[in-house]
Give the backbone structure.
Amino acid sequence: LELLTTSAIAAPDVILWDVDMPGMDGIEVIREAAERELAEAVIIASALDSKVVQAVRAVGEGYGLQVLGALEKPLTARRLSELLDTYRPRRGPRSRFVAAAGDPLAITGADAKRALEQREITFE
C-alpha cells in the first residue's frame, strides 16, 4: 500500500492481491484500495477457503472496485491471462490511472499478456 500511495508512480489499472498477508487482512487491503482509488480493478489470489475469498470479493465490489475474479494458488499464467482479458476501463481517461511518460513501472495490459505468453513472468 505504501508504494501505491506515493505520488512517484501512476496508479495501476489492475492489482493482483493476495488476501493472506502479514499485518493486514485482505478485506482491509481491498477497502483501502477502493477508498484511496489505488486501482480501478483487482484480481484476488488466495489459498484460503473459498468463503473467505468470496467475502473479500463482495467487499471489493461493495466499495465500487471492479473485481475481475479470484485465483486459487498456485496461480497459472493461463487463468491470470483470462482474467486480465476481462478488464475494461470504466472511468475513461483519468489522470490518476494514466502512467506518466517514461514511468519504468508502467506496463499495459498488452505488455502483461505478452509477458505471460512468452513466459517472461513465472510462478513458483
